[in-house]
Amino acid sequence: MGFALPNGSHVYLASEYADAVPFTDITNAENAVITVASATGLQEDDIVHITSGWSGISDVVAKITAVDGTSVTLGNIDTTNVNKYPAGSGAGSIRVVSEWTELPQITEVANAGGDQNTTQIQFLSDDRQRNLNTFKAASSQTYTIAHDSSLPVYPLLDRLDENGDTVAAYMYIPKAKENRYWSATVSFNKIPATAVNEVETVTVALQLQSPAMTFYKIADDGSTPGS
Fold first, then answer.
1. Structure pTM?
2. 181 near 50, Cβ under 8 Å?
3. What's the 3-state SS for the chain?
4. What whole-number distance in Å separates Cα of residue 59 and Cα of residue 161?
């Protein structure tokens, strides 16, 4: 059993990517292995944004945990379900995140969506209905931040809001010794909320595009977060 407070956490958005690296094959494994033409420029602990023919991992953000020749291992990317991930159809590309920009001065985080939707069925012989799971609602996160138009993240938020690109994001939670990665589109409301005797704030809404978050425990060595 384990738990931790989020106090002291930091949130980052990808602000620069390296060129996309195509992969021609991907294995069915607990830690999927992709095959690239050349692994030059790829190294262990790189964070990559995945595009794949397998929708279950497309737009997932992962960490490279090993590079061996042209084989690159994506840690915690479980593709063992061969019905969901049929062999031969998962080819795609990865992009290394080469620069992160922090989303600073966060005062509040609100999660929405992700609820399980259901449909009901009742047979003639039944005296009660049954719920069947159908789909899960789309998820979003809204970050309230103290307004400061000189923050380096403002131009990035403006650009992402305007072009609608899906971008990698991550949260560093020092008390949990964990990094959490996902991808999202960004909506930035830069009009400050103003009230007497209150700090002005703006909101950043992240509409999650990755099917799931990926979680990686980090070494407790005092190193700077970012991988």
1. 0.91
2. no
3. CCCCCCCCCEEEEEEEECCCEEEEEECCCCCCEEEECCCCCCCCCCEEEEEECCCCCCCCEEEEEEEECCEEEEECCCCCCCCCCCCCCCCEEEEEEEEEEEECCEEEEEEEECCEEEEEECCCCCCCCEEEEEEECCEEEEEEEECCCCCCHHHHHHHHHHHCCCEEEEEEEHHHCEEEEEEEEEEEEEEEECCCCCCCEEEEEEEECCCCCEEEECCCCCCCCCC
4. 18
The per-residue pLDDT for range 155-208, each reduced to its tens digit, is 999 999 999 999 999 999 999 999 999 999 999 999 999 999 999 999 999 999
Structure tokens at 114: 């992700």
Taking only the tens place, the pLDDT of each residue in 104-115 is: 999 999 999 999
C-beta separation of 31 from 216 below 8 A:
no
- β-sheet bridge partners, residue 99: 16
